[in-house]
Amino acid sequence: MDAQEIKTSGAPAWAASARILSATCEDMDRLADVRNRFGATVVLLYGVGQTSNGWCPRASYERIGQFIARAHDNDLKVVCYFDTTLAEEEFFKDAHCEWAQRDEAGQPIHYQPTHIRQHRYAFCFNSPWSEYVQRAAARYAELGADGVFLDNPDYYTFGGKKSCFCSYCQERFKKETGADIFQVPEGARVKWLGKCLGEHIGRVREAMTRAAPARPVVVTANVCGDGPIRSMRVLGPYLNVLFREAGGAGPHLRKRLERDRDEGSGKPLWVVLTMEWRSPAETARVLAEQIEDVLAVGACPMVWATLPSWDPKRPGFSEISIYSEPLLAGVVERFFSPRTGAGEGSRDAAASQEPSDSAVWAKVAEAHTVMWRDYIDPHTFQIYTYLDPQTLRPRLPSYADVAACKPSTGGWDTALENCALDGGSYLGGLLDRFAVTSKPEHAEEARKIYQGLKLIADAADRKGCIPRGVMPDAKTHYPESSVDQYTKYVYGLSRYFRSPVVTEAEKAEIRTIFEAVLKRLEADRFVILSDTGAPIRFGDLDALRPSRAERLLAIVLAGADVTADSHWREVYLQLREPRLKHCRGRGGEPWVLVQNQLAFYVLRHLETDPDIRKVYEAGSLEAAEACAPHLRLCAVSTGERDFVATAMNRLESALTLALTENREFIVPHLGAIKRVLVTYDYTRSIRGRHLFVNGVRPVECIAWSLARQGLLKPE
Ligand SMILES: [Zn+2]
Description:
alpha/beta
C-alpha cells in the first residue's frame, strides 16, 4: 500500500464525529457512564498487552478483550494505545537491542523522561521492531478493537543528527538509493526516514486489516510537533485519522488545527487536549475553551478522563479525573453530549421536574426518625458514626478495645469515629429548625445534642482536648482527634452560644470549654495533639493552606466571641495575617469543602471588618461553586467508593450551598438540592458493610437552613 492509496482511502464513518475519552481497563465498570452520562462515542484505551514505554499501564490481552467487548455493549468504539517507537529499558536488555535507533557513532538512542523511572529506548521502523508493532496492532484487531493509536512516531535525536544509522537503515538506504547513508546530506536522510516511518504505519494498518478484514479500523498517530518527521505534512498522508496533541487555547490553537485540517485533506482530525492541572475551576475553564476551539474547526476532541501522572514514582495516571472532579465532568457532559443545546432530551425533562416541598419534608421526617432512633445515644446524646447492619445497633467497640486503642488510636470504623464532628454539624441544623418553628420540643432536642458535645469536652484527660466521641459510660474514649472534629464541634458550639436556646448556665459552660480549648491549642502551637499529648495524623491545624487556614481562624474567632477575652481577639488577628490568602473554598471533595464552609459560616457571622468579611464570603461561594456540580443525581449504590460519590458528596454539597446563605446563588440550584434530598433511602445509608450516619445527618441541616432562608416552605 503506497502513500497515495492510504491518503485516499477513507476512515470509518464514526471517526468523523468522534467524542473521545481516555480510559484504562480499570474503567471497565464506568463504560455505561462514559457513553450515557458523558456522551463519549470512542474510548482510547491505555493498557498495553506487551512492551510498555514505562508510562502506559500494562494489561493482559484477555482483559483488553473484555474491555473491548464491554465497550461495544455500550455502543462505544475502542482505539487501543501502543507506543510505536519507545520501549522501556527492560525491552532493550534482551535480544531486541539490535532494533534500536542508532546515532552516527552507533550508540543506541535513549533518554530519561522526567515522568517515568526508566530510560526509554527508541526503536527503528526499518528493523524487526516494525513487525513487532504490527503483531501488537493485529492482536488488538483480533480482540475487536476499532483502531490503534500509535504514540511517539518519530526518529529521535538528543543533540546530534536527526537520523538513524542502525544496520537496518544502512542496508536499506543502500538498497533503495545506492548511496551510503553516512555520506548523504542530513536533509536527504531525514526525508527518507520520514517515508520509512510512514510506510511502517502503512504496514501496521495492513496487519490490522488482515486480522479483521470486515471492519474498517482507525490507524492514527500522535503528531505533536512540526519537526522534520513528526509533522502533519510528513505523517498525515499515512494516517486515516489525523491526531494532534495540543495545548493552549484561543486563536493560536484554532489556527494550528485549521492548518492540520487543510493539510489532512478532509480526513477526520482528533485532538488530544493537554490538560495542565491548576485548580478544578481553572482547569475546567481552560478545558472548556479548548473543546470549543476544537469543535469550532470541525475537529474531534479527546479529553483525558483521568489526567496523566507526571510523578516518576507513579507512572501512568494521577488521581485527578472527571469521576472525581465534577467541574471537569460538567465540561465533558456539556460539550460531548449530542443533547447539548437542544434541551429536549428526556434527561433534561426529568431534571426540570422539581420535587414538591412536601415530598422534601417527608424525607426530612424520615431522616429525623433514623437519627434519633438509630444513631443518637438516648443517654449521652452522642451521635454514633456506624451501625451494625444486622442489629441496627451502634457499632461500639468494647471498653477493653478502646483502652488498647483497637482497632486504632482514632477508633476509625467504630461508632465513636465522628461523634464530635457530627454533633457539631447536626446542632447547627437543629438550631435552624428551632429558628423556623419556635417549638419548645425543638429547642430541647438541640439542647440534648449540646449536652452530648459538652460531655465530649468533659471526658478529655488533657484539658482542652476534644476527643472524637465517648462510650456510654460518658468517659471512655480513644485519644486521637482531628482538625475535622474540632472544626464542626466549634461550629456547633459557637452557634449554640449565640442562639436563643442557650441558658446563662450553658453559656458559662461553653466559655469554660473554649477557654480550655484555646489555651491548649496555644500551648501546642496550634497543632492538635492527641489526648495523651502525642502527634496525630490530622492535627496540622496550623498549616497555611485551604481546609486549615479558615478552620483555625474560625476556631479562634469563635473562642474570642464566646470568651470576650481580648487576648484571643489579638491572637486571631495575628493568625489571620498570613492565613487570609489561604482562606479558600478548596482543598478536597464536598465532604471536605462542607467543613471549610462551616468555618466560613462562623467567620462570616463573627468578623466585623467588612473587607475581611468579603474574603470569607468569597471563600464560602468558592466552596459552593465547587460543590454545585455534585448535585447531579446518581443511582444509590452500596459500594463504599460509590457511597462517597453518590449520597455523601451530594448531601454535603447541598449543605455547602445552603450555608452560603446567599439567596441569589442558591435559587438556581434549588431544584437540584430538592432532588438530592428526595432521592435517598435514609434508612439504608451504607458505607462498606455498615450503616453510616453521614448519609443521613446532613438532610435536616440542609432543609432547615433553606427553610430559615425562606427557600423551602415549612409544613
Ligand atoms: Zn534505523
